[in-house]
Write a structure and sequence with these properties.
ADP-ribosylation fold; Arc Repressor Mutant, subunit A; alpha+beta; three-stranded antiparallel β-sheet; 9 strands; 2 domains; single chain
């Protein structure tokens, strides 16, 4: 039942999480491993993605249940806006996080529209080189920044337990001529962040 009406469960929580991770990998990093061709802006047909997962992915026996409606549901329910659907719902792409070369077409945020501060989660062993050289995209196309320290801490924990939160002064980015893009409500993108624009806040819940 949903809102008092009979309803059919489309995805379990475990299915949604597993499919979301696979979609992220295929749309950001390894489309060729499932025989997918993204266009220059990273788009692919929803039905083609579903078919590739069922028929060409190396662990396809685990995903024989996947249909286009499951792809759309994962995209629409994702809390971090990892995916974008075309207006007609027939195409999908990753909103950010690419290591494959695509042109996302985001417009730089005009002066005054960016939050004054953004945040980045890292681990303590990376702090010294970051403060010396700035934040670089490394294997990705862009540096990912978060709108609040809590989200940044969550991202930082993927790299280890000793998380350090960095505060990014977006007005400083503008002074250095660094464009800033909004990929979703939880993710902002920059080609790099100069050391002068970074302030370490310490470990979440401890040093700051």
């Amino acid at each position: 039942m949903h809102c008092g009406e009979p309803a059919e469960l489309l995805l379990t929580g475990e299915q949604r999480l597993r499919l979301s991770k696979l979609m992220s990998a295929l749309l950001r990093h390894i489309p060729g491993e499932a025989g997918l061709r993204l266009d220059e802006e990273g788009w692919v047909e929803v039905r083609e993605l579903a078919r590739a997962i069922r028929e060409r992915w190396r662990n396809r026996e685990l995903y024989q249940w996947v249909r286009p409606e499951h792809i759309v549901a994962v995209a629409m329910l994702d809390p971090k806006g990892r995916f974008q659907l075309s207006p007609d719902g027939k195409r999908i792409r990753a909103a950010y996080g690419h290591s494959v070369r695509v042109r996302l077409g985001y417009e730089p945020l005009p002066p005054g529209e960016a939050p004054p501060r953004l945040y980045h989660g890292t681990v303590r062993r990376s702090l010294e080189p970051i403060m010396r050289e700035g934040l670089k995209p490394m294997k990705r196309m862009m540096v990912h920044l978060s709108p609040d320290p809590e989200t940044a801490a969550e991202v930082g924990r993927r790299h280890g337990p000793d998380v350090v939160i960095l505060e990014i002064d977006t007005r400083c980015l503008a002074r250095h001529g660094v464009p800033l893009y909004r990929a979703s409500s939880k993710v902002y993108l920059a080609p790099w962040v100069p050391p002068a624009c970074i302030k370490p806040l310490g470990r979440p819940g401890r040093d700051g």
